[in-house]
Write a structure and sequence with these properties.
This protein is α+β, with helices and mostly antiparallel strands. The chain has two domains: 2-69, Orthogonal Bundle (Arc Repressor Mutant, subunit A), CATH 1.10.10; 87-126, no CATH class. Helices cover 42% and strands 13% of the residues. The protein has helices at 2-5, 8-13, 18-28, 35-41, 46-58, 115-126; strands at 87-88, 94-99, 105-110, 113-114. Strands 1-4 form a two-stranded antiparallel ribbon. Strand 2 (94-99) and strand 3 (105-110) form a beta hairpin. Helix 3 crosses helix 5 (46-58). The longest helix has 13 residues, at 46-58.
Length: 127
């Protein structure tokens, strides 16, 4: 039995993986099995197991947030299109000087200048 193999301190701080919660809930759905007996086997409070069952029935067990802060946070993804960065090609070299402070400057010399990379560099320097 799992309950006998875990020390008491572990039981108080145990973080159950979602897959394990789902497996334990599914045990309670077997004919002739009670929530109380499964909760006792895993040393869970019956109210905790009942809450897992509610989440399972609502299909929320897959989407349960990892932290309380995550409950109110919603992540939306937007489509992104990446185009080739424009470059300037020619026989002359491109020279860009970025003054970071009164004592520090960055000089870039190149045959081809990638403005996208330059914009990223400037944004990172500003931080």
């Amino acid at each position: 039995m799992l309950a006998e193999s875990l020390p008491p301190a572990t039981l108080l701080t145990r973080k159950w993986p979602i897959a394990e919660k789902r497996r334990i809930v599914e045990l309670t759905l077997q004919p002739g099995t009670s929530v109380k007996s499964v909760a006792a086997e895993y040393q869970l409070d019956t109210s905790t197991l009942s809450q897992w069952r509610t989440h399972y029935r609502k299909g929320l067990l897959e989407q349960m947030p990892r932290t309380k802060k995550a409950k109110n946070r919603q992540t939306d993804f937007l489509p992104v299109t990446i185009n080739a960065a424009p470059t300037i090609k020619g026989s002359a070299h491109a020279i860009v000087t970025i003054q970071i402070s009164s004592e520090v400057s960055l000089k870039i010399e190149a045959e081809t200048l990638d403005y996208s990379a330059l914009g990223t560099l400037i944004a990172q320097i500003r931080q």
